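pinging the channel bc i need a second pair of eyes. not urgent but kinda urgent?? the chain im working w is below, pasted from the shared doc
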Amino acid sequence: MKVLEGPRPAESLAVPAWLADDLELRRRGITLVECLRPPTVFCTSWFATPQHVVKIVEPDANLKLDIDEAAICEFLQRPGARESPDTNHTIPCDVVHAEKTVLVMPYLPSMKAPPTLDPRWLESFLDLAYQLLEGIDYLHRNRIAHMDICPGNLLAATPREADLDDRLAAGTVYIIDFDRALRLAHAPGTQGPILLPSAQFAPPPGVTHLDPYAWDVHCAGRVLETFLAGKARTDEAAAAAAPWVAERLVLWLKGDERLGGFRS
């Protein structure tokens, strides 16, 4: 969930009156006080327990995309979909049909910053990679391409959040923001290329169309590359002797050889 920076008009930061007064949110004890991403994402007080995030998910006509984020999230939360929490890494959420449709979800720490890596950092890195790919694989098996996999759209549950919400597991990575996601008619391996929408990661030079499933995997490689770069900045000795398995994994996921020899 990307939090915008820089000056913002005060009205774009205010919680809309219809949202603040929504009866279902009030019934749940949710009082929104702060804007995380104008004009659609708001949260309860940092002192609230548990803390919640509410996202307005009405389709954006400016995107000119046939995307129904609420329908995708409802599908991913359907009965039975969370019976295998180790594979479904979609953040648990409730779809509330208020004046506008909103998602109600637990507030979790973002993984935008490189994770703190102890001397067993490779183990932590590979665990992150495994969970991320497991979550993407779950989406793809359900013919959903996220289309905007990036560090800002990954959250991680701590023991505190897991204690407050039995849908969460401590140490688990969760994928958020399905406002670019696509439900596809064809399964992986049979889907053709599409025009890539705007996303946090820019496509390689000259690449405008790609298999959407392949784009998710490429972006997963870029995420891991970002975390490796963060490790290099904080530990030059480790960077100089970076295990080949981590670097090879990143290159394999990015699929550079299939993108014209592109190197980021």
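so The first strand starts at residue 32 and ends at 37. and The mean pLDDT is 86. — does that match what u expected or am i reading it wrong
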